[in-house]
Task: inverse folding
């Protein structure tokens, strides 16, 4: 057998790469169709014909995957809501509402996220009180010449 020259070998490699790209572009996934094996793997454990019939399984699988996508993106929202509902009563114990606490901390350049504030409110009440006092100092500044009674804070 004759050896293939290096120039034709590189041409052959570029042709093979082009063929693999064309095969990928013409694959079932390119047109939004899931292969049967994947559909039935996801549909395993479902009730009725939806785990055996491709058409029914495809519908159920697409619905389930859409639902899982929705839940994955809802979880961070739910966590943020939970942190806020825990920070608010802790801040109110020290005489400051949540909105003014966050506003005061940002204006004081104290950049703590809500998760950290929630952990501090639960586990480190003294540290949390220091943060609330700092936010109060910024939100309710002392005016020179005005004697304000701040004892209710």
Result:
């Amino acid at each position: 057998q004759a050896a293939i020259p290096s120039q034709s070998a590189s041409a052959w490699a570029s042709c093979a790469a082009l063929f693999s790209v064309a095969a990928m572009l013409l694959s079932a996934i390119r047109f939004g169709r899931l292969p049967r094996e994947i559909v039935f793997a996801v549909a395993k454990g479902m009730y009725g014909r939806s785990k055996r019939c491709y058409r029914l399984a495809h519908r159920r699988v697409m619905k389930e995957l859409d639902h899982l996508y929705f839940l994955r993106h809802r979880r961070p929202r739910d966590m943020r809501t939970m942190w806020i509902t825990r920070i608010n009563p802790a801040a109110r114990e020290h005489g400051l509402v949540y909105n003014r606490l966050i506003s005061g901390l940002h204006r004081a350049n104290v950049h703590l996220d809500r998760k950290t504030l929630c952990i501090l409110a639960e586990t480190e009440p003294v540290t949390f009180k220091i943060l609330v006092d700092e936010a109060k100092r910024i939100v309710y500044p002392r005016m020179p010449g005005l004697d304000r009674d701040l004892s209710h804070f």
Notes: Residues 54-93 form the longest helix (40 residues).
